[in-house]
Amino acid sequence: MMDEARTTPPGGEASPSADPDPQPPPDVTVRPARRSDARSYLDMWRRVVAERRFVRTESVTGGVRAYRNLLGDSWSNDRATIVAVAHDRVIGVITIERLRHQVNRHVATIGMAVDADWRARGVGSALMGAAMKWARSSAIEKVSLEVYPDNEAAVALYRKFGFSEEGRLRRQSKKSYGYEDEVIMSRWIADAEPEGAEA
Q: Is 9 left (phi over 0), alpha (psi -120 to 50) or beta?
């Protein structure tokens, strides 16, 4: 799930038709994941999971081989795994994936993680910008995600990209320390929400 950003745009939420186009920080490259990223990706993911704060996962299973296979198909019309890399080390990742059911294939979901040392430095914004470009190029109409409500930096980042809250799932995550609500946030990639959609 998420990361980043400390402020909301002036006047509240950004217009869905005006995506920010943030550039990554110096010495950071944002690109599709590669098999060769597996070891570094796994190291980053283990650090994020060990925080036990911002992602659902509380333990990492599988080794480098499993992640190499996972990253082997990182870019298609249905799914993209995009990494931020600094000095040949993966420091962040965003995955955006089209829903599989026929009636939901216009919708994609997002999951993101950024190494703690690189938060609030523009990495999450650069990853989100890349994910939104993939969504547009893949004819996605709507993007949705879930975020823990106390992850204020992530919520601010998503709002900057035009996401708004659609609801809250009470006690949706049962973690080792107790329950967590999940906030559902979504945005339309098209210039406007379709007519007839419920408010």
A: beta
Domains of the chain with CATH codes:
28-188 (3.40.630.30)
CB within 8 Å of 74: residues ≥ 6 apart: 32, 33, 34, 80, 81, 82
Per residue in 115-172, pLDDT (tens digit) is: 999 999 999 999 999 999 999 999 999 999 999 999 999 999 999 999 999 999 999 9
Spatial separation of the C-alpha atoms in residues 144 and 108, rounded to whole Å: 6
Q: Cα(57)–Cα(73) distance, rounded to whole angstroms?
A: 22
Both structure tokens of 55: 């992602």
pLDDT tens-digit series, residues 59-77: 999 899 999 998 988 999 9
The answer to whether residues 4 and 114 touch, using CB atoms and an 8 Å cutoff, is yes
The rounded radius of gyration (Å) of the Cα atoms in the chain is 16
Q: What is the rounded CA–CA span in Å between residue 38 and residue 100?
A: 26
List, in order, residues 6 or more apart from 14 with CB less than 8 Å away.
20, 159, 160, 161, 162
Token pair 């955006």 is at which residue?
96
φ/ψ of residue 167, rounded to 5: 165, 180
3-state secondary structure of 105: coil
Rounded CA-CA distance 115/93 in Å is 9
